[in-house]
Amino acid sequence: MLTTNEKELIKKISNGNTVAFSDLVDGHKDLVYTLCIRMLGNREDAEEVSQDVFIKVFTALRTFKGDSKLSTWIYRIAYNACLDRLKKSKKERMRVEVDHLKSAAFSVMDNALDRMVQEERSVLINSCLAALPAEDASILTLFYFEEKNLMEMEKVLDLSANTIKVRLFRARKKLAAIMENKFDKETVGSNG
Q1: What is the C-alpha separation between 13 and 61, in angstroms, rounded?
Q2: Closest alpha carbon to 34 in 18, 10, 53
Q3: Alpha-carbon distance 172 to 164, whole Å?
């Protein structure tokens, strides 16, 4: 139930007394802000909703029946305003998540296509490597696929770095010729 002071305050506000409304805001702003910050967890949202609450209080004050404490009524308005904000932000978050999921789905599809291209390329390279003499295939595999440096390759192959460089150069030339030949056949085969 309303106290005599609250009844008087409401009467003054209803008659357009802005100082009385300012007193009402000062008396309840901490309570409203505390509730908003706890429910929303965001200072900016809490400040914005707190301001909205007092606008609602001002516009609805004439219809307030006085069947509860004024602070309880204001608290209920604040609580409902926070719920509305949470529902609104949840809808926005869901829309953003749906957009994100769409872009993630495209990303997965792109990654799958990239993987397919990589696998095709890998199959092609492996078939070309298989056409090389074993010595050339092994030196290219060590250097490009195993990513061994010249010092590591010296230990594995028991050859000097200069010899490895020469063999790498020759193996690359042979591989390039095989790949070129294979691409020409595939291109001619797919067009003809």
Answers
A1: 8
A2: 53
A3: 12
